[in-house]
Amino acid sequence: MKPMFPDITAAAAARLPLVRMAALTGLLVAVSSGAALGEPVAKSGTTPYVTHFVFRPLASIDIAGLGSVTPLEAVGTTQNLKGEATLDKMSARCMALNVASGDKKYIDGACVLADNDGDHIFSTFDTRDVDKTQADLSCGTHVITGGTGKYDGITGREPFACNVMPALAGAGGYTAMDIPHNTTWEIKPKQVGTTAPSTTGTIKP
């Protein structure tokens, strides 16, 4: 049987066009790094990580003396605080609602984390849901409701803090914040005979 990737001598390589060499190099890199993609994750654990967020206000209703409401989009990346792979270097995108009226001041919404394999973790959050047992994470709590791919069946809770960073320069009202979390999570195996939920939706008039 011929080897999949036969040796290429220097003389032969010199005769190969640059484009073919680049394609071959890319293929070899992809094959050699393939084991790093799709690696299985642990089925449970406690993971501290921080998300570096930038917030963009989408609109605002502000009635002086009564209150305000502002929908926000937040995007950022995650960093595992132990230097481990779990919940590290994932992209984060959230939609939130910031409400302030009288003594009611809160932000709630939902987030999606995505990894290099295209797998996702979905969570909701509410700054009114505070874990009083973790005083340094008293800004609110994320509730992990599910995931796709390797995260299918994941659930968990992650109290978080809100560390305000300097506002971004320029117009638009952009703000920045570091959000440290302490996540306790579990991935439960699918029950035999269950049907996966539909990924399609219906828009009703």
Helix content, binned percent: 10-25%
Ends: how far apart? Answer: 62 Å
The poorly predicted ranges are 1-36, 199-205
Overall average residue pLDDT: 82
Question: How large is the count of helical segments?
Answer: 2
Pattern of helices and strands: HHEEEEEEEEEE
Overall structural class, as computed from helix and strand content, comes to mainly beta
Look at the structure and give the CATH class: Mainly Beta
- Largest beta-sheet details: 8 strands, antiparallel, barrel
What's the quick description here?
This protein has two helices and ten strands.
Description of the structure:
The protein has a single domain, classed as Porin (Beta Barrel). The chain is 11% helix and 44% strand. The chain has two helices and ten strands. A hairpin with a 3-residue loop joins strand 2 and strand 3.
